[in-house]
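User: Hello, can you help with two protein structures?

Assistant: Certainly.
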Amino acid sequence: MSYLQDKERKLIIFSLIVISLFLSPYFILGDGAHIRVHDNLDSNLAWYKVLAGSGQIAGSLDARIPQIINGLPRNALGTEYSLIVWLYVLFPTMVAYGISQGITRFIAFLGMYLVLKDHFTKGEDNSLIRVGTALAFALTPFWPSGMLSTLGMPLALWAFLHIRKGRGSWPHYLALTLLPFYSSIVLGFFFFLSAMGLFWLSDVIRSKGWNWKFFLAIAYMTAVFLITDYRLVYSFLFDGEPNSRDEYFHARLSFWHSVRLTFKNFLLGHTHVMTVHTLVILPVIAAAIILIWKHRKWKKERIFVFLFGLNFALSAWYAFWFYKGWLPLTERFHFLDTFNFARFHFLRPLILYILFAIGLKILWNEKILRKAVPWLVAAQIILLLFTNEEIVYHKKPSVREFYAEQQFEEIKNYIGKPQHSYRVASIGLHPAIAQYNGFYTLDTYNNFYPLSYKYQFRKIIENELEKNKRIRVYFDEWGGRCYLFTDELGKHYMFKKNSKRRIENIYVNIEQFKEMGGEFIFSSVPIDNASENNLKLDKIFNSKESAWKIYLYEAL
């Protein structure tokens, strides 16, 4: 083994140790760990627990989950062919969460390392660049329930590029087969496979041949995704029941607002595909562009130049997807509203980190800049280490404090009836908390649910919506959060026990609430005019292990 190969092996071992340490808080702290709330604790983790206990993991296409909104369609909670579902069936929440993070980050490292080593930074003297970039990519703060939807793209690209060059073998096809079982087609791979299809088509147009192996590999991975995500396919194409996404309205931004959003996304990224690229990666890319211009290497570095242009184009596409100029098309073709085509920007993590690696290689080839490369790699890795959830969310409730199992067990025992025999809803509190603790909720946060139910639920809060345009538009033109919104609290759902907030003047339709089966409201703030709404305060629940003070109101 040469010195350079031995150095690369040591760098890989070091990277695996860093990733393991990065993951360690989940296993050391368990329920005491602090993790992302938005689109995580407030939704997905509760969904997995509800699904695991529903007896409907492999339910029929028309099965319902009675614990949520008097019968949430089973298809709204994803496919049983996704490994993440089974992690939450087999393990406690934080063990499953930690394992899922580990699977995603180690495969992200492997995929980025392989695609750089075989296709973009081949030289032995580039070992630090490819291993360092792969480690940085594996540490990015991805959306947890997205799994490998974005972080698995480098492994898929590695496989496709080998197949495209006629060098495909069983490891490449194995990667294309297994990735769909730990990723989502709508959260990343629809857009990646579309890009691969365009790549294949560009080869044909440029007279490089039809390359049927490449085409069939794309078709094969697409077919595996369609089979594993069959519930989504059925719901999108064959389920005739109108759902909440049918009223999703996205085209509302002005031209100049869309321009501003383009540059915001280009510079800062997006919450679901955070790349943390602003401080180190963008300057590296800019310096590489300057060097290409200085040395007139546009043709030699055409891949870098193309990816740079594509990266900006994806930010523009994301921003202008919300441009109101789409209105004539969305009114004519309804699927343009129900499917989020803005997510082509989910390709950006893959592109940005390949640009980072190639940019570092361009800097490395400049003797005067070579010494800066290791420091730039280290800077990006150190920056990403500070994005560890335990650091970022240390002021948020821990998992134990958020779900407050002991406190909600006390509430259940106080009510003293089987949980399936009554319905609850929450104010100033995510309904996922009640769901996680086994309560049957009229409110929810879900990607789609029957539109008829949205109309039913709206009657409960219609007076509050009339008082507040922001929550009215939020509910009527999206409605994914089917919450007991109030004018005074607005779009805030986490009032902790030390909060001084209170609701002074609420008016909800309690008769409609009771007609839908509602008996109790869990509120994180006191309601001053509860009696005017035919609500009686039964008891206040507090707990050292909870982030909340729960006011239990009973509908009279």
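That covers the first. Now for the second protein you mentioned:
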Amino acid sequence: MNRISHIIVVLGLLCIAKGTAQHINQVTATIDHETKEVHIKQRITYWNMSGHGLSSIYFNDWNHSYSSKRTALAKRFAEEFNRGLYFAKDEERGRTTITSVVDHEYVGLHWERTNQRDIVKITLDKPLPPNESAQLFITYTLKLPHSKFTDYGFYDHGGYYLKDWYLTPAVFDGEWKLYSNKNLDDLHTDLAETTVNLIYPSGLFVASNFDSSGSASFPGGQQISLRGSQRKSCEIILTPENTFTKHVTPYLTIATDIESAKYNEIAQGISINMIAEFLHENLGSYPHNTLLVSEIQYNDSPLYGLNQLPSFIRPYEEKFQFEMKVLKTALNSYLRETLFFDIRKDRWVNDAIANYLMIKYVEKYYPDQKLIGKLANMWGIRSFHLADMGFNEQYAFFSMLAARKNIDQALNTPNDSLIKFNQKIANRYKAGLGLAYLAEYVGEERIDSTILDFFNVHKLDSRIKVEDFKNVLEQCSDNELDWFFDEYVSTRKKIDYKIKSIEKTDDSITFTLKNKRGTKVPISLFGLKKDSVVSKYWFTDIDSSKTFTIPRNGEDRLVLNYDQKIPEFNQRDNWKTLNGFFSSNKPLKFQFFKDTEDPYYNQVFYVPVANFNIYDGVTPGLRIYNKTFLERPFQFDIAPTYSFLERTLVGKASLRYRKYHGKSGLYVSNYQLQGSTSHFQVNSRFSTLTPSILLGWRPDNLISNRRQFLLFRHRSVFRNIDDAIADDIDTDPDYNIFNVRFQDIDNDIINYKSWWLDAQHSSNFTKLAFELEYRWLYENNRQFNIRFYAGKFLRNKTNSDFFSFALDRPTDYLFDLNYLGRSEDSGIYSQQIIIAEGGFKSKLPDPFANDWIATTNASINLWRWIELYGDMGFLKNKGENTRFVYDSGIRLNFVTDYFELYFPLHSNNGWEIGQPNYGERIRFVVTISPRTLTGLFTRKWF
């Protein structure tokens, strides 16, 4: 069957399908401005369009997902370290109160909430046969949530945003598709003929994706009638000011409140007209009267990256910034209102089309646009490879960022199983790159016309499937495209090719391509002559390696994936010269600060650094490393610094090779050699040398924050001790310790769980230690922390407490802890506490144990970050009786593990608060490492 015949048949089938009945939904809603409630009377005529009889019908009630801390929405927020909904006040929450459900004979029907809480099950009085309808009358009240959680609900300025707000029927296609709200913008509901009669407060203006069919004002309020045919949900924005402008173009009408203060209104109108024309040319006619493109929609899916910088430092021209903002939002809205895939399962198709068209738009209108905009021409920046990158190269960059961190997920992964970075950025970009990849392989015009045909055939098709998209793509190509769906879409396999060897004659070039990852997808090869492309070829069916011969056309270099249209894992080995030099002999490039990968250089970066401890003071220096913005397997990091107090060099260095394995199970192996040197007392230096192996495990569900690690390391410590304190040091200056530790941590913001088992062996001792820690956040917002620690010497030949277990301030003989003044026993630096070993906060006499120790630390919050803590435990020294110890006090837990204050109240010392020099008893936790602090802000993404 040729392509035209195929389209005619599909169109015919769709005409039959679209001739069937759709649900009829009539909603009368009244907003109570004082209570932030919406009183609704809803009449729905539900058509059973399946081949099964139905005894009950399920409805989406996503407003109720804001009702408690146990909903899927609250759990999703917690997974992303967002406690806003968990700590919300009752008046900030949303809920749905159903008053009655009756059928057309006014017989009351039984209804109940499922375990998902935001899904309502209505049991019919009698089964509903196929192709028959049932009328339901539902009366209920929505208590709207505060908009601070997801933008949905009421605003402090008096406005409202209503989206997926009234009850809509869940989809039944042989089984019910019951999807809870997880703030993923993927409501899955049947199409309906919907009328919304909205009564709302005076002084507000309305914008909606539905058409207005009449409005009126009355004392104290307003009324508007909104209609939508073959729509899923009515979206309404109510604002105190009329911020929306309707742009009527020859192609479609766009209503938007997106604007730019530095870009005049006439120019904005011209840009929107250009965007409308682009949408029409590439997607066909929009089947509804008005396309809603709002700032709220944009905020849900913004242009990530430099576009989110404050406006006064944004590097893009206002015209470009405005158009990209409107284009992205318009594309998402356009596709959401027309292509009705099961977005929870198959979002990648919409993402592929949207991001592919964004790539095309930039290629057409802004081909020279740089990724960092005007910054690319600034002195000091223009030498960076980042400055050479085009705007569209960000798609490959961000998708590869996930791949290099081994957190990438297959494109067909369900939307609610994606980690946030993939759901918002990486998978969307990879999907768009996929179509750009196909366009290069089969021809851009073919792909463009196929998307246009596909859209015109399948728009408003309520039962559209991915198979429909696959079939249309396969019709447009002369080559088979199974690799695209079987490899690129359905797996997380990496694409990575290399030119292995090369031979040349006067009229031909013979070379071998190696498929380093075994992912069987096409690869492009370019022949370059003085940086100009003189030939291009595509090669397929390469299992491991394959030899090819091409005619010689004056090439001086062969480069794989030269235009970077293929999201390849490693492009550093993609080229070979034909003039006697090999790609492995790439020149060395020294560069200030970190940069993106430049495949034509071996990059070495340098940046000034400064560290601090009280013995070395502020130690400025230079960090030399090879880590780019994208991870690479082998990394070196050398940071020599100068101690002005000691007038000598200090610092650290490391060599690391990281090997990522599969998605789950054993997913990473780290092989590392570290060295460091610093001072632990005046004129007393310590140096460490540590080879180590770290193995990491994780579950198949990447959203889970659980990880397991097994560490093997051998730490050698060398100390040069000042003669003035040599008599105070009662251990050998140098020692070696072999350390094995297994750790299991579930870094959940609601229920944090962690435990580890640690073994250490040296010539003088062997010891075991165990730690278990829990943090519970209860529904009444009370947080309870408990930690248990136990340690035992299996043998101990030492004659001092240097290697002993400690109650409150371990000696840190492994030099793991970031003490600002590790040898201090008085003064402010001695008050720094790092919760380790015994975990006590009070300074008790004789705090060491050379036999065994067992302690428990607990705390519970009294109000927000003010907590009451208590510690208790037992110490046992050789030849002595077991001692019981305890302390208690107030903890100010500003940021757990990062900034805390402890105020002792009572302990074995008595009432500490009434004793002299109480200020010296206060302890503090502080983290000054920038890398550690940035983890607070990035953990929600990865």
